[in-house]
Amino acid sequence: ARARLAPGVSGKASCLVSDVVAGVVAVVKRIPSGKQLSFKMDVAEDLTAPIDEGDLSEILGNLVENAARYAKSSVRVDASEAAGEVIVTVADDGQGIADTDRESALSRGVQLDSRGGS
Q1: Any idea which fold 2-105 has?
Q2: Residue 65 CB contacts under 8 Å (≥ 6 apart), including other chains
Q3: What is the pLDDT of residues 23-63, one digit of tens each?
Q4: In this structure, are residues 96 and 81 in contact, taking their beta carbons and an 8 Å threshold?
Q5: Would you kindly state where each structural domain of the chain is located, as residue ranges?
Q6: End-to-end CA distance of the chain
């Protein structure tokens, strides 16, 4: 993905966000942590993002699967465009990250939960 974003690399990737979100949610609904959850999506059908479809699927897959692991009953995925940027939000109704862990949770390579799996 980084190679595709490097200066001088030709070709501009683009994908339909609603298709990617729907595909990711369909997969996560089939894993054990997703089977008993409600999934809500609010994504305009014509919203496109300047990213390779596979890359967006991988990113969203990680976020939605993580949300499903910690949700009590629901996961929500919203996407919109503001000021020329596509904003995607993944939220669940779980307890959230402890205030003391928030900063480290955003650090590269940090994993707060060592349980693994779904």
Answers
A1: Heat Shock Protein 90 (3.30.565)
A2: 28, 31, 33, 34, 118
A3: 999 999 999 989 999 999 999 999 999 999 999 999 999 99
A4: no
A5: 2-105
A6: 25
